Amino acid sequence: MLWRALPLPIVVVLVTLAAGCGGSSSKSSEPALKTYPVVTVETPATATPRHCQGQSPAKQAVQRRKLERDLRALRAAAATMKHYAQDGTPQMNRALDRFELDVADEALSRFQRNRFIDLAAAIVSPHCYLCFQALEANRPLAAGAKLACG
Question: 108-140, pLDDT tens digit by residue?
Fold first, then answer.
């Protein structure tokens, strides 16, 4: 109750001085936050067209022949494997790479390409775990599909 005994102007001066304790006029030792300018990226007005329903019958026939050839190569590569391997053999990997490149073409509809992936997965799954996972990751139909088709 000492503050009641002091006159009011002295209490105001003491409170003002106490409020300034611990502060300094020099810059704080904490580093200042660095700010970066905002960069906007413009997307092109026309996106790459997707052929979700496939292209002309002639282009579909060409892609179908390529994929059937790739399935034959996968069967031949799987026949050379005598045991289960996590990452396959070089022959299996070459055949799978060729299949993945050919199935990415959008001449066939996404449903037909998905069916070819089913056939390839049935061939490689008893022999190569990572080959099967690569096929599953590149499906045009799935929860994480990369196609912008509805």
Answer: 888 889 899 999 999 999 999 999 999 988 887
Give me the amino acid identity at 119.
L
Instruction: Return d(Cα 136, Cα 121) in angstroms, integer.
Output: 8
Query: Rounded to an integer, what distance in angstroms lies between the CA atom of residue 111 and that of residue 93?
Result: 24
Tell me the per-residue pLDDT of 14-64, one tens digit each, with 9 for 90 and over.
777 666 656 555 555 666 778 878 877 766 655 556 666 778 889 999 999
pTM: 0.62
Contacts of 130 (CB under 8 A, 6+ apart): 86, 87, 88
Helix axes 57-80, 110-124, angle to 10 degrees: 10
Domain residue ranges of the chain, discontinuous segments joined by +: 57-137
Say whether 85 sits in a helix, a strand or coil: strand
Q: Are 92 and 77 in contact (CB under 8 A)?
A: yes
φ and ψ of 90, to 5 deg: -60, -35
